[in-house]
Write a structure and sequence with these properties.
Blueprint lengths: L13 H13 L2 H6 L4 H20 L6
Helix pairs in contact: 1-3
Length: 64
């Protein structure tokens, strides 16, 4: 595992945060794999989406 990366994002509207939370819930392996170069990258994308989704949920943006 590499060095941790810390990202701070300021979204202009709460609706965007909610839309992202909803998207992270809906996106599936098929979508991720089709947009990745290979399985390894797809797993990294999936893990990254899970981390972003968790951060949104901790701030109160739960998927509908």
């Amino acid at each position: 595992m590499g060095k941790p990366v810390f990202i701070t994002v300021e979204l202009p509207e709460q609706d965007i945060a909610q839309a992202l939370a909803n998207y992270f819930k809906r996106v599936g392996w098929h979508d991720i794999r089709n947009n990745a170069v290979d399985d390894d990258e797809a797993f990294e994308i999936r893990d990254g989406l899970a981390l972003l989704s968790g951060a949104l949920q901790r701030d109160g943006y739960t998927p509908r």
